[in-house]
Specification:
The chain is mainly α. It is 81% helix and 0% strand. It starts with a helix and ends in a 7-residue tail after the last helix. One of its GO terms (cellular component) is plasma membrane.
Protein backbone atom coordinates (compact mmCIF):
# COMPACT_ATOMS: atom_id res chain seq x y z
CA UNK A 1 0.00 0.00 0.00
CA UNK A 2 1.41 3.39 -0.99
CA UNK A 3 1.92 6.17 1.54
CA UNK A 4 -0.93 8.16 -0.03
CA UNK A 5 -3.31 5.18 0.13
CA UNK A 6 -2.33 4.52 3.75
CA UNK A 7 -3.00 8.16 4.64
CA UNK A 8 -6.39 7.99 2.91
CA UNK A 9 -7.26 4.85 4.86
CA UNK A 10 -6.19 6.42 8.17
CA UNK A 11 -8.31 9.49 7.49
CA UNK A 12 -11.24 7.26 6.56
CA UNK A 13 -10.89 5.28 9.79
CA UNK A 14 -10.79 8.47 11.87
CA UNK A 15 -13.81 9.96 10.12
CA UNK A 16 -15.78 6.71 10.40
CA UNK A 17 -14.98 6.43 14.12
CA UNK A 18 -16.01 10.05 14.67
CA UNK A 19 -19.32 9.48 12.83
CA UNK A 20 -20.19 6.37 14.85
CA UNK A 21 -19.19 7.98 18.15
CA UNK A 22 -21.34 11.00 17.31
CA UNK A 23 -24.29 8.74 16.50
CA UNK A 24 -23.70 6.84 19.74
CA UNK A 25 -23.74 9.98 21.86
CA UNK A 26 -26.82 11.47 20.20
CA UNK A 27 -29.17 10.48 23.08
CA UNK A 28 -27.41 13.09 25.22
CA UNK A 29 -28.18 15.76 22.64
CA UNK A 30 -31.84 14.83 22.18
CA UNK A 31 -32.24 14.67 25.96
CA UNK A 32 -31.28 18.35 26.11
CA UNK A 33 -34.31 19.04 23.88
CA UNK A 34 -36.82 16.99 25.86
CA UNK A 35 -38.90 20.13 26.58
CA UNK A 36 -39.67 20.35 22.83
CA UNK A 37 -42.28 17.92 21.41
CA UNK A 38 -40.65 15.09 19.47
CA UNK A 39 -42.41 15.93 16.19
CA UNK A 40 -41.14 19.48 16.38
CA UNK A 41 -37.59 18.24 16.97
CA UNK A 42 -37.89 16.03 13.87
CA UNK A 43 -39.28 18.91 11.83
CA UNK A 44 -36.37 21.17 12.82
CA UNK A 45 -33.93 18.32 12.19
CA UNK A 46 -35.25 17.89 8.64
CA UNK A 47 -35.44 21.60 7.81
CA UNK A 48 -31.98 22.58 9.07
CA UNK A 49 -30.43 19.36 7.82
CA UNK A 50 -31.93 19.95 4.36
CA UNK A 51 -30.50 23.47 4.21
CA UNK A 52 -27.05 22.27 5.24
CA UNK A 53 -26.96 19.27 2.89
CA UNK A 54 -28.34 21.42 0.07
CA UNK A 55 -25.61 24.00 0.64
CA UNK A 56 -22.96 21.26 0.64
CA UNK A 57 -24.23 19.78 -2.64
CA UNK A 58 -24.51 23.20 -4.24
CA UNK A 59 -20.88 23.86 -3.33
CA UNK A 60 -19.58 20.44 -4.43
CA UNK A 61 -21.77 19.65 -7.45
CA UNK A 62 -23.42 22.88 -8.55
CA UNK A 63 -27.12 23.35 -9.28
CA UNK A 64 -27.61 20.27 -11.46
CA UNK A 65 -27.45 17.56 -8.78
CA UNK A 66 -31.21 17.51 -8.09
CA UNK A 67 -32.16 17.81 -11.75
CA UNK A 68 -30.06 14.74 -12.51
CA UNK A 69 -31.97 12.69 -9.93
CA UNK A 70 -35.44 13.95 -10.90
CA UNK A 71 -34.67 13.05 -14.53
CA UNK A 72 -34.79 9.40 -13.39
CA UNK A 73 -38.42 8.82 -12.29
CA UNK A 74 -37.72 5.44 -10.66
CA UNK A 75 -34.84 6.83 -8.60
CA UNK A 76 -36.87 9.90 -7.64
CA UNK A 77 -39.80 7.77 -6.47
CA UNK A 78 -37.61 5.40 -4.46
CA UNK A 79 -35.88 8.32 -2.75
CA UNK A 80 -39.29 9.70 -1.78
CA UNK A 81 -40.00 6.33 -0.12
CA UNK A 82 -36.60 6.22 1.60
CA UNK A 83 -37.21 9.77 2.85
CA UNK A 84 -40.45 8.67 4.53
CA UNK A 85 -38.70 5.68 6.10
CA UNK A 86 -35.84 7.70 7.54
CA UNK A 87 -38.22 10.39 8.82
CA UNK A 88 -40.23 7.71 10.64
CA UNK A 89 -37.01 6.25 12.04
CA UNK A 90 -35.83 9.65 13.29
CA UNK A 91 -39.18 10.47 14.86
CA UNK A 92 -39.48 7.15 16.70
CA UNK A 93 -35.87 7.32 17.86
CA UNK A 94 -36.15 10.84 19.29
CA UNK A 95 -39.46 10.04 21.00
CA UNK A 96 -38.03 6.83 22.48
CA UNK A 97 -34.91 8.55 23.82
CA UNK A 98 -36.90 11.28 25.55
CA UNK A 99 -39.48 8.76 26.82
CA UNK A 100 -36.79 6.75 28.64
CA UNK A 101 -36.18 3.90 26.18
CA UNK A 102 -32.51 4.46 25.29
CA UNK A 103 -31.57 0.83 26.02
CA UNK A 104 -34.28 -0.44 23.67
CA UNK A 105 -33.21 1.96 20.93
CA UNK A 106 -29.69 0.54 21.19
CA UNK A 107 -31.17 -2.95 20.80
CA UNK A 108 -32.79 -1.84 17.54
CA UNK A 109 -29.45 -0.84 16.07
CA UNK A 110 -27.81 -4.03 17.32
CA UNK A 111 -30.53 -6.04 15.54
CA UNK A 112 -30.30 -3.98 12.35
CA UNK A 113 -27.24 -5.68 10.74
CA UNK A 114 -28.84 -9.11 11.11
CA UNK A 115 -32.17 -7.83 9.83
CA UNK A 116 -30.32 -6.46 6.81
CA UNK A 117 -29.18 -10.02 6.10
CA UNK A 118 -32.76 -11.30 6.26
CA UNK A 119 -33.93 -8.51 3.93
CA UNK A 120 -31.15 -9.42 1.52
CA UNK A 121 -32.41 -13.01 1.44
CA UNK A 122 -36.06 -11.97 1.06
CA UNK A 123 -35.70 -9.22 -1.56
CA UNK A 124 -32.28 -9.57 -3.19
CA UNK A 125 -32.17 -13.38 -3.42
CA UNK A 126 -28.97 -13.51 -1.42
CA UNK A 127 -27.98 -16.81 0.19
CA UNK A 128 -26.73 -17.43 3.71
CA UNK A 129 -24.37 -20.12 4.89
CA UNK A 130 -24.97 -22.19 8.02
CA UNK A 131 -22.97 -19.87 10.26
CA UNK A 132 -24.95 -16.83 9.15
CA UNK A 133 -28.24 -18.67 9.70
CA UNK A 134 -27.04 -19.62 13.18
CA UNK A 135 -26.35 -15.93 13.90
CA UNK A 136 -29.85 -14.98 12.76
CA UNK A 137 -31.29 -17.80 14.88
CA UNK A 138 -29.50 -16.63 18.02
CA UNK A 139 -30.77 -13.06 17.57
CA UNK A 140 -34.31 -14.31 16.90
CA UNK A 141 -34.15 -16.39 20.08
CA UNK A 142 -33.14 -13.28 22.02
CA UNK A 143 -36.06 -11.27 20.66
CA UNK A 144 -38.45 -14.16 21.35
CA UNK A 145 -37.15 -14.44 24.92
CA UNK A 146 -37.74 -10.73 25.56
CA UNK A 147 -41.23 -10.96 24.09
CA UNK A 148 -42.07 -14.02 26.22
CA UNK A 149 -40.75 -12.60 29.48
CA UNK A 150 -42.21 -9.11 29.09
CA UNK A 151 -45.52 -10.05 27.47
CA UNK A 152 -44.83 -8.18 24.23
CA UNK A 153 -41.99 -7.96 21.73
CA UNK A 154 -39.52 -5.06 22.01
CA UNK A 155 -41.55 -3.09 19.45
CA UNK A 156 -39.45 0.07 19.58
CA UNK A 157 -36.28 -1.86 18.78
CA UNK A 158 -37.99 -3.89 16.05
CA UNK A 159 -39.60 -0.81 14.45
CA UNK A 160 -36.29 1.05 14.45
CA UNK A 161 -34.43 -1.93 12.99
CA UNK A 162 -37.11 -2.58 10.35
CA UNK A 163 -37.47 1.05 9.25
CA UNK A 164 -33.71 1.54 9.00
CA UNK A 165 -33.27 -1.84 7.34
CA UNK A 166 -35.90 -1.03 4.70
CA UNK A 167 -34.29 2.39 4.26
CA UNK A 168 -30.96 0.71 3.56
CA UNK A 169 -32.61 -1.74 1.15
CA UNK A 170 -34.25 1.06 -0.84
CA UNK A 171 -31.00 3.03 -0.97
CA UNK A 172 -29.16 -0.10 -2.15
CA UNK A 173 -31.65 -0.58 -4.98
CA UNK A 174 -31.28 2.99 -6.26
CA UNK A 175 -27.87 3.86 -7.67
CA UNK A 176 -27.42 7.38 -6.30
CA UNK A 177 -24.50 8.95 -4.45
CA UNK A 178 -25.03 8.80 -0.68
CA UNK A 179 -25.00 12.55 -0.05
CA UNK A 180 -27.00 13.39 -3.18
CA UNK A 181 -29.56 10.80 -2.14
CA UNK A 182 -29.81 12.39 1.30
CA UNK A 183 -30.24 15.75 -0.40
CA UNK A 184 -33.11 14.46 -2.56
CA UNK A 185 -34.80 12.89 0.49
CA UNK A 186 -34.44 16.22 2.27
CA UNK A 187 -36.08 18.06 -0.62
CA UNK A 188 -39.12 15.75 -0.43
CA UNK A 189 -39.40 16.18 3.33
CA UNK A 190 -38.58 19.89 3.49
CA UNK A 191 -41.98 21.48 2.84
CA UNK A 192 -44.01 19.11 5.09
CA UNK A 193 -41.40 19.56 7.85
CA UNK A 194 -41.39 23.34 7.41
CA UNK A 195 -45.20 23.39 7.59
CA UNK A 196 -45.14 21.29 10.77
CA UNK A 197 -42.45 23.51 12.27
CA UNK A 198 -44.39 26.71 11.51
CA UNK A 199 -47.64 25.17 12.82
CA UNK A 200 -45.90 24.28 16.05
CA UNK A 201 -44.43 27.75 16.37
CA UNK A 202 -47.84 29.36 15.82
CA UNK A 203 -49.42 27.15 18.49
CA UNK A 204 -46.71 27.68 21.11
CA UNK A 205 -45.24 24.18 20.69
CA UNK A 206 -42.15 25.09 18.73
CA UNK A 207 -38.71 26.10 19.83
CA UNK A 208 -38.29 29.69 18.65
CA UNK A 209 -41.60 31.02 19.92
CA UNK A 210 -42.15 28.46 22.65
CA UNK A 211 -40.46 30.55 25.32
CA UNK A 212 -37.59 28.16 26.03
CA UNK A 213 -34.79 30.60 25.28
CA UNK A 214 -32.03 31.01 22.75
CA UNK A 215 -30.09 27.95 23.95
CA UNK A 216 -32.82 25.57 22.83
CA UNK A 217 -33.21 27.53 19.60
CA UNK A 218 -29.51 27.03 18.91
CA UNK A 219 -29.73 23.32 19.75
CA UNK A 220 -32.62 22.88 17.32
CA UNK A 221 -30.51 24.37 14.53
CA UNK A 222 -27.50 22.26 15.54
CA UNK A 223 -29.72 19.19 15.28
CA UNK A 224 -29.66 19.66 11.52
CA UNK A 225 -25.86 19.69 11.48
CA UNK A 226 -25.77 16.58 13.67
CA UNK A 227 -28.01 14.90 11.10
CA UNK A 228 -25.91 15.83 8.09
CA UNK A 229 -22.32 15.65 9.35
CA UNK A 230 -22.18 11.95 10.37
CA UNK A 231 -23.88 10.89 7.13
CA UNK A 232 -21.43 12.93 5.04
CA UNK A 233 -18.57 11.54 7.13
CA UNK A 234 -19.85 8.00 6.66
CA UNK A 235 -20.06 8.51 2.89
CA UNK A 236 -16.46 9.81 2.97
CA UNK A 237 -15.24 6.83 5.01
CA UNK A 238 -16.82 3.99 3.03
CA UNK A 239 -14.89 5.08 -0.06
CA UNK A 240 -11.59 4.76 1.80
CA UNK A 241 -12.04 1.91 4.28
CA UNK A 242 -12.92 -1.74 3.51
CA UNK A 243 -16.62 -2.38 4.02
CA UNK A 244 -15.88 -5.27 6.38
CA UNK A 245 -14.06 -2.87 8.71
CA UNK A 246 -16.86 -0.31 8.53
CA UNK A 247 -19.34 -3.11 9.27
CA UNK A 248 -17.55 -3.93 12.52
CA UNK A 249 -17.13 -0.27 13.46
CA UNK A 250 -20.89 0.34 13.19
CA UNK A 251 -21.37 -1.41 16.55
CA UNK A 252 -19.67 1.56 18.23
CA UNK A 253 -22.90 3.57 18.06
CA UNK A 254 -25.37 1.11 19.68
CA UNK A 255 -22.76 0.14 22.27
CA UNK A 256 -22.41 3.76 23.37
CA UNK A 257 -26.20 4.16 23.35
CA UNK A 258 -26.60 1.08 25.52
CA UNK A 259 -23.97 2.28 28.01
CA UNK A 260 -25.64 5.69 28.18
CA UNK A 261 -29.02 4.09 28.81
CA UNK A 262 -27.76 1.94 31.68
CA UNK A 263 -25.07 4.14 33.26
CA UNK A 264 -26.23 7.71 32.55
CA UNK A 265 -30.02 7.50 32.20
CA UNK A 266 -30.24 4.71 34.80
CA UNK A 267 -32.76 2.67 32.82
CA UNK A 268 -33.60 -0.78 34.26
CA UNK A 269 -31.53 -3.69 32.97
CA UNK A 270 -32.26 -6.84 34.94
CA UNK A 271 -31.02 -10.40 34.44
CA UNK A 272 -34.01 -11.33 32.27
CA UNK A 273 -33.33 -8.52 29.82
CA UNK A 274 -29.59 -9.22 29.98
CA UNK A 275 -30.18 -12.82 28.81
CA UNK A 276 -32.18 -11.64 25.78
CA UNK A 277 -29.51 -9.09 24.90
CA UNK A 278 -26.81 -11.74 25.36
CA UNK A 279 -28.47 -13.97 22.75
CA UNK A 280 -28.59 -11.06 20.30
CA UNK A 281 -24.98 -10.08 21.03
CA UNK A 282 -23.91 -13.71 20.54
CA UNK A 283 -25.61 -13.70 17.14
CA UNK A 284 -23.82 -10.48 16.23
CA UNK A 285 -20.47 -11.89 17.36
CA UNK A 286 -20.96 -15.00 15.20
CA UNK A 287 -22.08 -12.89 12.24
CA UNK A 288 -19.25 -10.35 12.55
CA UNK A 289 -16.62 -13.01 13.13
CA UNK A 290 -17.76 -15.01 10.10
CA UNK A 291 -17.72 -11.89 7.93
CA UNK A 292 -14.24 -10.94 9.10
CA UNK A 293 -12.95 -14.47 8.48
CA UNK A 294 -14.36 -14.51 4.94
CA UNK A 295 -12.88 -11.08 4.17
CA UNK A 296 -9.39 -12.32 5.13
CA UNK A 297 -9.50 -15.63 3.25
CA UNK A 298 -7.16 -15.71 0.26
CA UNK A 299 -9.00 -15.51 -3.03
CA UNK A 300 -8.52 -18.67 -5.11
CA UNK A 301 -8.10 -17.72 -8.77
CA UNK A 302 -10.55 -19.26 -11.19
CA UNK A 303 -9.17 -21.92 -13.47
Amino acid sequence: MSAAAAAERRSGLLVAAAAFVLWGLMPLFWHLLKAVPSLQIVAHRIVWGALMVGAWLLWKQGRGWLRAILARPRAAGMLALSGLLIAFNWGLYIWAVNAGHVVETSLGYFINPLLNVVLGVAFLHERLNRTQWAAVGLATAGVAWLALRYGQPPWIALALALSFGLYGLVRKLVAVDAVAGLGAESVYLFLPALALMLWGESHGMGGFLGGWGWRLDLLLVLGGALTALPLIGFAYAVRRVPLSVVGLMQYIAPTLQFLLGVLFFREPFDATRAFGFACIWAGLAVFAGEGLWRSRRPVVPAT
